[in-house]
Every structure is written in structure tokens, then in C-alpha cells.
From TrEMBL:
Biological process terms in GO annotation: regulation of DNA-templated transcription
Keyword Nucleus: yes
Entry's localization field: Nucleus
Species, as recorded: Cylindrobasidium torrendii FP15055 ss-10
Single annotated GO MF: zinc ion binding
Protein known as: histone acetyltransferase
Active site: 198
Superkingdom of this protein's organism: Eukaryota
């Protein structure tokens, strides 16, 4: 049993975590089952079930005995994670903790979270990782409680934007995991990187990521077919004259992809610190059709490729293809462009809205306005 002071819950560990638990007098820990002990008696060794209670400080996550814990909790210097606050929205905050500068804190945090993650393998080698620790202000005490974290490699050669993620049991199923996933993709987009989580994903991790991928892709598709009509370009000579004019997207992208690359290069020269992913160039065409009752309906056709979806969402191509296939939105007999290797996917507004209603899209929880520079 693992008990953390201040978290107000005793929690049975779900998986083995390599805490260096010392043997007690007259008792030896069973190496294959740390939750049980062997008691020495005159008749020999009788195996009995007796959970070992480990006391953990909820501020610095150091583990100790009850006697040491009672003294430590009075003098623990940590009132918040030892890092820079990068995000705050109400009582929810995010701290960036350097694993090299705060090695002991990150090691203790990993050991605690290993009790609830089966596939976690990182315990002590924290120097090359950044930890983004999420806290929630307690309404009664006003203290910031750590409710979860995610870690990422400082430099990932495989474009991984997340190595490990966990929300502690008392705060699960409240949207905090989705907030951390969205924040990890924001970091990769700011770095100009198409990234994704390091595998393999746990069952809960796959559910959370699949929900994020679906919501992001459907939101992108909706945006392409929901652009308002260019009323400012109307001409009085013909009621549909604006349909013959090129329509600019919501963000003023260049009409020529070559111009986009050249303008992006110029921006990089002006500000070398800005490495965000360039916005995709979406081609739209408006058309009108006459209904039997005389009503005129105006529609829009948006043409984009898999590469555009990847570039706009920051999600890796294999995850985009997986989601489109799972939702039934992709057509395998797609035509290939003559000047590129991108596969063109044909979608309809009805198909997009039908999928959006069936998958119960979630609104984004992360907002850049809550970032702390």
C-alpha cells in the first residue's frame, strides 16, 4: 500500500515499482512479490499476506518510514514543483521541470507513477528529459497538489513529443489527461516538428490519444467547409460574380505553394527563434445550384491532401491515416497527383457531420491565452 500525505487517499499500488524498501527486523521481503513479507518463526518460514505501507511526501515525493515522515513533513521546503510555471488556467497550473537540474525530484516522481503504469521503464535516468508537472489548487488548504505529469525527451531523434503521461487515480476522468496531450502537441508545433507519443501506449493512453486525434482532424475538416462567403467581394453586375473569384482562406496563405515556402524562408530570416509549422495552402472553390423550388444554394469545395492535415494538426501521417480509416472517411482507390506523392482523399459534408455526431467530439481544453511566457 502506498500512502501519500496531503493527497487524502491511501492507494493500493497496481504495479511493481522498484522502491528500495529495507527489510524489517525478523522479516524479509519476498523478492518476487514486494507486497508480501515472510515472517521467521520457530517452525520455519511461513508466508503471510501483509502489505507494506510506504509513506511519501506529497510535496517532494520522497519516500520514508512513518517516523521519518512525521519529521520531514514539518520542514519540507517544497510548496510547488521546482520548475518554471508555463501554463495557468484558474486553479490548474503546469510547471516545466528539468530532469538534469532536479534529478532527485524527478526520480521520486517516476517511482510513484510507476505504481500505476505497467509499461513504464524510466526510473532513474531523468537527465535527458523535461517533465511537465500539472498541479491543482486544493479548495480547502489553498496548496498546489500534483495531480499528474508528462515527460518528453529534450532532443528526440524519432520526433516523440511525449514519453510518459499519467494522471493520478483521484483526478482521472476529469479531462486533465487531454489537457496534457494538447499541450504536448502545442510544444511540438512550436518547434516546427510533426510528432507523437512514444510507444507502446497503454490502454488508457490509446483511448485518450484516439479521442484527441479524432477531435483535431474533424475540427480541421469542419473548418475547411465552413468558411463564410466572401461578401466583401460581391459585384452588382452579376449576383454570383464572386463565385468566379479566388477565395482566400481564413488565414491569408499565399496562392502559390512556392510563394509560401519563399515567404516562410523570409520570416525565418527575420526571426530565427520562430520555428512553427507553416500553415497549409488550402484551395477552395464556391459553386451554386438551382433547387426545384427556385432556391439557390451555394456550396464550397475544399481540396487538400494528407500532408495538409498533418501540417495543420501536427499529428503524424500514420495516426492521421489510422483515424480516417477507423472513421470510414478514407477511400482506398484515391487518385495520385502527378507532381507529388500525396494521396487525395474525397470527403463530403454529410460524412464529416455524421462522424462528428457519432464520435462525440470534445472541445479543446488547452488555450494559448493561458500560457505564461
Amino acid at each position: 500500500m502506498c500512502f501519500a500525505s496531503g493527497l487524502t487517499f491511501p492507494e493500493l499500488v497496481r504495479y511493481y515499482s522498484p522502491y528500495p524498501i529495507p527489510a524489517r527486523e525478523g522479516k524479509d521481503l519476498e523478492p518476487d512479490d514486494p507486497g508480501r513479507v515472510i515472517v521467521k518463526t520457530e517452525d520455519g518460514l511461513n508466508r503471510i499476506e501483509e502489505p507494506f505501507i510506504l509513506w511519501i511526501c506529497h510535496q517532494c515525493f520522497k519516500y520514508m518510514s512513518l517516523e521519518a515522515f512525521q519529521d520531514h513533513i514539518k520542514i519540507c521546503p517544497h510548496t510547488k514543483p521546482p520548475g518554471r510555471k508555463v501554463y495557468q488556467n484558474g486553479g490548474v497550473s503546469m510547471y516545466e521541470v528539468d530532469g538534469f537540474q532536479n534529478k532527485v525530484y524527478c526520480q521520486c516522481l517516476c517511482l510513484l507513477c510507476k505504481c500505476f503504469i505497467d509499461i513504464k521503464t524510466l526510473y532513474f535516468d531523468c537527465e535527458s528529459f523535461l517533465f511537465y508537472v500539472m498541479t491543482l489548487v486544493d479548495e480547502e488548504t489553498g496548496e498546489e497538489q500534483v495531480i499528474g505529469y508528462f515527460s518528453k525527451e529534450r532532443f528526440s531523434f524519432n520526433s516523440h513529443n511525449l514519453a510518459c503521461i499519467i494522471v493520478l487515480p483521484p483526478w482521472q476522468k476529469r479531462g486533465f489527461g487531454m489537457l496534457m496531450i494538447e499541450f504536448s502537441y502545442y510544444l511540438s508545433r512550436k518547434q516546427g516538428m510533426i510528432g507523437g507519443p512514444e510507444g507502446p501506449l497503454s490502454d488508457l493512453g490509446l483511448i485518450g490519444y484516439y479521442s484527441y486525434w479524432v477531435s483535431s482532424i474533424i475540427r480541421f475538416l469542419r473548418q475547411q467547409i465552413s468558411v463564410p462567403l466572401p461578401k466583401d467581394n460581391l459585384e452588382t453586375s452579376h449576383p454570383f460574380s464572386y463565385l468566379k473569384k479566388p477565395r482566400h482562406p481564413v488565414v491569408p496563405y499565399p496562392a502559390n505553394p512556392d510563394d509560401a515556402s519563399s515567404s516562410s524562408a523570409n520570416e525565418d530570416e527575420e526571426d530565427e527563434s520562430d520555428h512553427e509549422l507553416p500553415a497549409p495552402v488550402i484551395k477552395r472553390r464556391y459553386y451554386h445550384s438551382m433547387m426545384p423550388n427556385g432556391e439557390v444554394r451555394v456550396g464550397v469545395t475544399a481540396r487538400f491532401t494528407m500532408k495538409d492535415i498533418v501540417q495543420a494538426t501536427g499529428i503524424r501521417p500514420r495516426e492521421v491515416a489510422f483515424v480516417l480509416h477507423q472513421l470510414g472517411l478514407s477511400r482506398m482507390e484515391a487518385q495520385m497527383q502527378a507532381d507529388a506523392d500525396d494521396v487525395v482523399i474525397i470527403l463530403s459534408r454529410e460524412a464529416i457531420e455524421s462522424v462528428a455526431a457519432a464520435c462525440r467530439m470534445k472541445e479543446p481544453r488547452f488555450s494559448e491565452k493561458h500560457l505564461i511566457p
